[in-house]
């Protein structure tokens, strides 16, 4: 009995030591986490306490970059995984697109056709006449704007894209796009100057960045240039 009792006591002591080690480890981890959180809050409070009313927007952007973006700048998947998707269907999944090439604002999901002729139009019918079509769009979050002029008789057009503040909200994207499209869009605009809008090919289901250069989508050629914060897209019907 004494040997059995001794083994029982050794087992109990081993369990006690093991539990004590776990408790100490958890306490130390919680303490370090609390200290880290305190440092973060001190940094936030310092930013806010020293900001004037005019500086709050700039300070908020700095905090977001220093305390949030630094954790995710190498992993786009984190931006998708930890924000719930509340979209009632994807805004890109629709029937009857009037244009094959569209400029899409990421914060609002609004699309603006870049094709000179709508689907089903007969370009030949425009050759004898002359008509101009104007389209305007605005993203209230990024304050970006688009002004599109289409000269249907000439088969050409111009889209002037002003970036505004250049802000993209993944939270807003989660209200408009499905996660698969968000993943493709974020991959497309990564390391690009323009992150708040993309060009979308509704036939091939592909996204293209708004960037300087020439590209073709369907029957159209797009020549994009940049000047003083604005992008100008020259559109030409080439069929």
Overview of this protein structure:
This protein has five helices and ten strands; from the N terminus they run H-H-H-E-E-E-E-E-H-H-E-E-E-E-E. It has 239 residues and is of the alpha+beta class. The chain folds into two domains: 73 residues, no CATH class; 137 residues, no CATH class. It has a six-stranded antiparallel β-sheet, with no helix packed on it. It has a four-stranded antiparallel β-sheet with strand order 2-1-6-7, with helices on one face. A hairpin with a 2-residue loop joins strand 9 and strand 10. The N and C termini lie far apart (98 Å). About 3% of the residues have low confidence.
Summarize the SSE layout with pairings.
Elements: H1 2-49, H2 56-72, H3 76-81, E1 101-105, E2 111-113, E3 132-139, E4 144-151, E5 156-162, H4 170-173, H5 179-189, E6 197-201, E7 206-209, E8 213-217, E9 220-227, E10 230-237
Give a short account of the largest sheet. Answer: 6 strands, antiparallel
Please give the radius of gyration in angstroms: 28 Å
Please estimate the helix content: 25-40%
Fraction of residues in β-strands: 25-35%
Count helical runs. Answer: 5
- How does the overall form come out from the CA principal axes? elongated
What spatial order of strands do you see in the largest sheet?
A: 3-4-5-10-9-8
Order of helices and strands: HHHEEEEEHHEEEEE
Write down the domain tally. 2
User: Regions with pLDDT < 50 over 5+ consecutive residues?
Assistant: 69-74
- Termini gap: 98 Å
Give the number of DSSP strands: 10
| Mean of residue pLDDT values | 81
SS class: alpha+beta
